[in-house]
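Handoff note, outgoing to incoming analyst
You'll be picking up this chain. Sequence as last confirmed:
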Amino acid sequence: MSIARLAVTLLVLSLAALEVNAYLQNVTVKGTVLCNNKRAPNVHVILYERDMGTIFDPHDKLDRVYTDEEGAFKLYGEENELFEIEPFIKIHHTCNAKPGCEHTSEYVVPKSKIGGTYDMTYVSLQASSDKDEVDCS
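Most recent structure output, in case you need it:
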């Protein structure tokens, strides 16, 4: 057996062993999105599980929804991970944005809410999150 083939075989077996030790974890995130103190319908909300974020290990997209006519959303996601999952949501919106621009606001789900429900209650889009991005392309 060539060294390259042996290396690939060992890598596959190592990854399989890690997968066996991984365990299923879940989280539910819900809330109501507000723009200028008014409920914001049809806003895109995505639940992710944070990984290295590289091309080789991108964040896992667990669920996605659009807010209903009352601005409410509810997301559920589960993931097999070796270590504790790191869930977060991204909200894509145009609240107070310049014409042609879209804001993406990121919110981390507290570790204490893994295995349960994180009720964000009201998410005010005019307030900046820890990680806000603006795309005006």
